[in-house]
Amino acid sequence: MRSAGVCAVAVVAAALVAGCSADKVAGKATASGDSFAPSEDNQDPSLQIRGVVVTEIAPGQQHVRPTQRVAYPSIPPVGGPHDAQWAACTGVVYSKALRTENAVHSLEHGAVWIAYDPAKVSPQDQALLSAKVTDRQYTLMSPIPEMDHPISLQSWGHQLTLDSATDERIDQFIVALRENPYTTPEVGATCSSPLFDRNDPPPYDPTPPGPDAVPMDGAR
Question: What is the pTM for the complete model shown?
Fold first, then answer.
């Protein structure tokens, strides 16, 4: 993962709130009775999660063409300019690495994106992660080769990197940020994307963006 540039603020809590662990049903996080569920009084519960990094990204980011790249400061990215077509995020587990510009648009709609390095996460652990996503609205999962960390969770402006698929913070992150109306730029936007090919999505490009890439501020 390339280090985030400016505006990134590491939010490292001294300790988690005592007794706060996400409820689990069939391997999936739920907000029922969980202190990580967002509320008017606690709009961003992810700030309680050890290791979450928050990056301020303005809403209303511009769309780029399918042939354009964005100079994201981190891989996986957590927001910024993105493709006009969002990656389907209706609980889709992609077997291929996605074009980041499509995945970022999904984050704008309120999705949580689980990315993993297939060389660092065993098939058994991939199955554990998949169970948290499959058929769960506003989530998606995909591989990204050669990440710095085995697992990386993203929502708009938020990121959490992990080494283990059994880390309880995965469920906490999902509960806190999936469709969070206080952190999602486009509340109520759909994750259904009929025109997006789930079986053969636009591919991830591992090469560094060139000088013609769209910068994070959208300026040319």
Answer: 0.86
